[in-house]
């Protein structure tokens, strides 16, 4: 029974020493001296703020992309015991002792190091020689710009890692497709493709370009499968469903999970709350939640409310009035109604309170039981402090003469009667009998007499003059001019009014609410709002000293100074290996020209290379040239500040193309032994120049050793490069 114990248990394994060596070299090149410099380097000043907010569980919005990359950086801080206490206010600031610099930079460095063996494996899976694969890996290893970008708390190396992992996983899956469909390894690589694509998109939206490329390639491969008569309809359907699950459903689910973790971690109110809706703000701990906790949910006749404009751009503001009136005549000579001013005020104030009144009754308190206001009901809005009614009429607004003035009505005993009836329209209602709810309901107020809609028009950037205290204009806008979010309001603060007397009511307006009704949003509601804000929120694009155009990247006519030592000439620059960048451009040009030549010749029924070599050439180009194109060309359509590091994902694909073109030239165009020998010798000389340039620029890649003024001047190979030289 125990006979199997007589023989030793033997495990045999094949170890690719090329992969091991490349991985070790990649780790050394990216991890060596990782804590140097112990100072804020370029965009670490940007990402570090978010890491600190994660450590303190404070909510934030970053319009640059999804949260997964930020969470990975924060994970490094968490593993290093970072408490989030550091002021990220300037590049070059020395890190305090509580900042675990090595830990914060570890994950980007690991990702950059692993790109080296990934490049090797991708070329092997593309059916190229191990020599070509080794060349691709070494080019990635010796690329100065990739080294620089991966050694700091930045996201590009993580993005490139997931992009290459997605490509490798799909290639392994595709190669298994031929002989072991639906096997364990087949499923593993297919699922890993979807996971890696989702992670790439979750780090930066640039990852979406490679995801779309792989979806297109997968669609093309499946289209070819449809023509395979050996596959039954059931088998085709199973293949289709497997790809749909792995490449669509799982990536979407993972993308949602990134936001779920993000929102779970960041549960505290923070500086970015104001751009979110009142409902979102109220779901966070502290901030608005402290004010609104326990408010009545249903707005009733007699409710005391503040009305926040839903748009919230360029700043949040609340419907407001004060005792001052519009001037009889404006600066341009136009006249006004001289009624009490109504504005949108960007700060919380007692003059933001309004009372919802039933036009058929005089009382300004909530009855028992409360009578809720529903969609379509007619109400009057009474200003809480001045007790004047919200009104609009056919008088031009002060800044928007094509819109109606909105005021609080003062009876001057002239032929201008009050027009103060408003119809409540709940924009996000589920039925026409919906009750107006605190925070949750988004409402429009439609003027009964003129059909104008209450609108905060100050969002065009103009504010009222001194007589209006520079507050934002509120107007009555005709619905025929179209719908806009500035026409929508929500109740933010709410209490049930109990005092009929004005003096008592003023005291009541200053007091906190007591009732306890929860208004927590669902995850999907919070995700939808946050995703929309990320996609639509745009910071002002300002010209940066090191910003560049996409055309500058191909020939590396620009650089970025990442760090400068405060006393010596030591500095770090984002500069690529000139020989590698030039070779990548030549390789892309050769590939395009050869492909056009082959296509024309094949059209004439002339096959210069065997069919299997042609298919290999096309598939490699689809990955490498396609990867370069989808990661580069979209930048010509983007209206944002661009930097050289945006080109690195595209450059990585272009570098992979170099050994592909070299092997193709060697195998199919160098037909004699002499030509092949000469070609091999030229490759050795070329690769030596790559290594020489890597060594030459290493001091500005790693930041040490410090260079003299003359040595720094020698590194300025192009006049457009900004190498920093201290004045003597």
From TrEMBL:
CDD domains: beta-trefoil_MIR_POMT1. Residues 296-359, 370-427 form the MIR domain. Pfam families: MIR (PF02815), PMT (PF02366), PMT_4TMC (PF16192). Pathway: Protein modification; protein glycosylation. Its main location: endoplasmic reticulum. It catalyses: a di-trans,poly-cis-dolichyl beta-D-mannosyl phosphate + L-seryl-[protein] = 3-O-(alpha-D-mannosyl)-L-seryl-[protein] + a di-trans,poly-cis-dolichyl phosphate + H(+); a di-trans,poly-cis-dolichyl beta-D-mannosyl phosphate + L-threonyl-[protein] = 3-O-(alpha-D-mannosyl)-L-threonyl-[protein] + a di-trans,poly-cis-dolichyl phosphate + H(+). The keyword Membrane applies. This is Protein O-mannosyl-transferase 1. It comes from Calonectris borealis (Cory's shearwater). The lineage of its organism: Eukaryota, Metazoa, Chordata, Craniata, Vertebrata. The gene is Pomt1.
């Amino acid at each position: 029974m125990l006979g199997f114990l007589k023989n030793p248990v033997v495990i045999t394994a094949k170890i690719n020493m090329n992969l091991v060596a490349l991985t070790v070299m990649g780790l050394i090149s990216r991890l060596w001296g990782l804590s140097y410099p112990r100072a804020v380097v370029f965009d670490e000043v940007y990402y570090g703020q978010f890491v600190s907010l994660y450590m303190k569980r404070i909510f934030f919005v970053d319009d640059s992309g999804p949260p997964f990359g930020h969470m990975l950086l924060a994970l490094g801080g968490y593993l290093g015991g970072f408490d989030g206490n550091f002021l990220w206010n300037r590049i070059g600031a020395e890190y305090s002792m509580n900042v675990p610099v090595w830990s914060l930079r570890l994950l980007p460095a690991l990702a950059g190091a692993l790109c080296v063996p990934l490049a090797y494996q991708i070329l092997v899976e593309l059916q190229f020689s191990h020599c070509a694969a080794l060349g691709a890996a070494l080019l990635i290893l010796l690329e100065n710009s990739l080294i620089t970008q991966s050694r700091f708390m930045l996201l590009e190396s993580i993005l490139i890692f997931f992009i290459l992992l997605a490509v490798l996983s799909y290639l392994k899956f595709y190669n298994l497709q031929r002989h072991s469909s639906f096997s364990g390894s087949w499923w593993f690589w297919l699922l890993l493709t979807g996971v890696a694509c989702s992670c790439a998109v979750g780090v930066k939206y640039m990852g979406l370009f490679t995801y779309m490329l792989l979806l297109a390639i997968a669609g093309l491969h499946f289209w070819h499968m449809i023509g395979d008569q050996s596959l039954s309809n059931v088998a085709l359907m199973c293949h289709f469903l497997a790809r749909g699950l792995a490449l669509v459903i799982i990536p979407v689910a993972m993308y949602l999970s990134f936001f779920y973790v993000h929102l779970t971690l960041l549960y505290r109110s923070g500086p970015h709350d104001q751009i979110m809706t009142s409902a979102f703000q109220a779901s966070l701990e502290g901030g608005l939640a402290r004010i609104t906790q326990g408010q009545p949910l249903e707005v009733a006749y007699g409710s005391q409310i503040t009305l926040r404009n839903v748009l919230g751009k360029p700043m949040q503001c609340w419907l407001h009035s004060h005792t001052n009136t519009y001037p009889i005549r404006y600066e341009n000579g136009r006249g006004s109604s001289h009624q009490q001013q109504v504005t949108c005020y960007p700060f919380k104030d007692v003059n933001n309170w309004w009372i919802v009144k039933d036009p058929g009754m005089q009382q300004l308190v909530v009855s028992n039981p409360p009578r809720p206001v529903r969609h379509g009901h007619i109400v009057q809005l009474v200003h809480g402090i001045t007790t004047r009614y919200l009104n609009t009429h056919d008088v031009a607004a002060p800044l928007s003469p094509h819109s109606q003035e909105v005021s609080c009505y003062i009876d001057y005993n002239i032929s201008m009667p009050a027009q103060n009836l408003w119809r409540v329209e709940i924009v996000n209602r589920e039925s026409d009998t919906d009750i107006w709810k605190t925070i949750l309901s988004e409402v429009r107020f439609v003027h009964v007499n003129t059909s104008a809609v209450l609108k905060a028009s100050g969002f065009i950037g103009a504010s009222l003059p001194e007589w209006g205290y520079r507050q934002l204009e509120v107007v009555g806008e005709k619905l025929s001019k179209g719908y806009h979010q500035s026409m929508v309001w929500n109740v933010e603060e709410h209490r049930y009014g109990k005092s009929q007397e004005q003096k008592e009511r003023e005291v009541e307006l200053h007091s906190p609410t007591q009732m306890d009704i929860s208004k927590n949003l669902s995850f999907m509601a919070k995700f939808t709002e946050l995703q929309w804000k990320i996609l639509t929120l745009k910071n002002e694009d300002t010209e940066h000293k090191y910003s560049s155009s996409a055309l500058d990247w191909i020939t590396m006519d620009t650089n970025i100074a990442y760090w400068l030592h405060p006393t010596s000439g030591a500095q770090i620059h984002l500069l690529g290996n000139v020989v590698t960048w030039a070779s990548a451009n030549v390789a892309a040009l050769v590939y395009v020209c050869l492909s056009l030549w082959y296509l024309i010749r094949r059209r004439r029924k002339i096959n210069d290379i065997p069919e299997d070599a042609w298919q290999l050439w096309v598939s490699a180009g689809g990955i490498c040239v396609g990867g370069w194109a989808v990661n580069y060309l979209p930048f010509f359509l983007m209206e944002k500040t661009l930097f050289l590091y945006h080109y690195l994902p595209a450059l990585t694909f272009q570098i992979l193309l170099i050994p592909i073109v070299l092997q193709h030239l060697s195998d199919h165009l160098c037909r004699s032994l002499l030509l092949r020998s000469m070609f091999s010798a030229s490759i050795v000389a070329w690769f030596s120049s790559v290594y020489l340039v890597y060594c030459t620029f290493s001091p500005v890649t790693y930041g040490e050793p410090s260079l003299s003024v003359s040595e720094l001047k020698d590194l300025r190979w192009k006049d457009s490069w900004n190498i920093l030289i201290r004045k003597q």
